Structures are given as C-alpha cells and as structure tokens.
Sequence to fold (217 residues):
Amino acid sequence: MSKSALVVRHNRVVRATHWTIALSALLLIFSGFGEMPMYARYGLTQVPGFRWSGNYEINLILHYIAAFFFTAAVVFHMIYHAMRREFAALPRRGDVTESVHIIWAMIRGKEEPQHGKFLAEQRLAYAAMGLVSLILVLTGLIKTYKNMGNIILDPMFLQVVTYVHTIAAMPFVLLLLAHLGAFLVKANWPLFPSMFSGRVSREYARRRHGKWDIESQ
Fold:
C-alpha cells in the first residue's frame, strides 16, 4: 500500500514510549508476582529455563529495573504530550454514554457513530490506566525510598502504601488484559499494526474516524 493511502496515527516517539511502557509493565507484573512468592508454589520453577523465577532477589532486581524504565517512560509521555498540547486521548464529557452506544452498536451489528482519533472507550481506558499507573509509580517510589539507607518511615504508613501498591496492581493487570482483548473485536484489527508501523489506511480512518482531522497528518 502506498504511503499516500496511509495516514500517520502514532509517530516514532509515541511508539517507542508505548512499547517501553508495555514491555516494562509486563516485566513489572511478572517480577511483582514473583516476589510474593508464587512461582515455586505453582510449579513455574520446574519449567525449563524458569528455575530462577523462584528467586526473590532476582525478581526484586528485575522489578527495580522495570520500574525505572516504566516510571521514566510515563513521565516522558506526560511531558511530551503536554508540551505538544496533544490531548486527544483524554476523556471528554459524554464518553461513558458514547461508549455504551458503541458497544451496543457492535453487539447488534449496526453502524457505529463516527469517532475522533480515539474511541470514547479508549479515552476512558487511557484515563483509568493512567490513574492506576500513577498510583503504582507513587507508591513504588515511596517503597524504594524506604530502602535507601537508614531511612525510617512510620510502619503503619508503609503498610498502607504496600497495600495500596499491591491492590492497585490488580486493576492494572485487568486493564492491560482489556487493552489486549480489544483487538479481538474485528473493527479494531486495523489499529493493531499501527503500533508497529505507526500508520493506518486513510480509507479506514475516513470510514471509522470521521471526526479525526487526518488531512493535517
């Protein structure tokens, strides 16, 4: 397909940031569960190549490394889009109602309402994922700060921070699964390659994202 038949949806910086967040998030989830511990109990350590997964120290180091890249990417993401005044992914008034209409249209096989660059449910999911991510980053930084030398924090406060961090991980995993599950919907299939190439077909953008100003892309 010629470039004239395509429109840029995500530039290289956005794609690099997305994959940094995505891959570090997966490593955070894996290493986080490994610290509980779970993998020896459920037999993962018996799988060839995964004996190390039951080692608390290794999982802790991996968690710190992943947390560094995740935090850096999240902060960069916020600053980058704020400086460029790109807020198309933020929720808008009426997104909940519009999401219901979209889902109902999909279920009935009817035509969806026209979208902007992002669907209403994508904006809502983005906000939810962003909020949970910021909670994880903040509580994670506090937990890390506590481990830096002879620093003493109130035990009750630390316990609350730990609980919040652990509990927030649950909706984070669910939101990540929902994000991946969205690509099971046929109408969303053309969006998946754009996270690698950065482009979608101009015809698809006009047909489904009529409110998106693709001519400026």
